[in-house]
Known about the structure:
- This is Membrane protein YdbS with pleckstrin-like domain.
- By secondary structure, the protein is mainly α.
- The chain has two helices and two strands.
Amino acid sequence: MFQSERLASLGVSARRRPNGLVASILWVASLIAAVAAMAVGAVLAVFTAAAVAVIALFAGVLVFLAGLAMRARRNLTPRRRAGDPELIEAHKVNGTWVAYGWDRHGR
């Protein structure tokens, strides 16, 4: 017997298919395994969709809070005192005082 003849019996076409009751049992078992795999896939898809929804919700809340922070920062401009219209704003920049508001018209 040659080497190639011994290996020929190992191929896919050389396998025998079961007949009768064993074939029916294997068919039912494969059907149950396929249904179980689809059920697991469906459950994992639902969990993935829920995770994406939660991430989207948190991202929306984060964008909302960032908008509130930007609005609050914009509204925190220095307010003038109503009693002293001659008061101007000044900041110290590199050891020199720089005044703002002195060149405005209508004062």
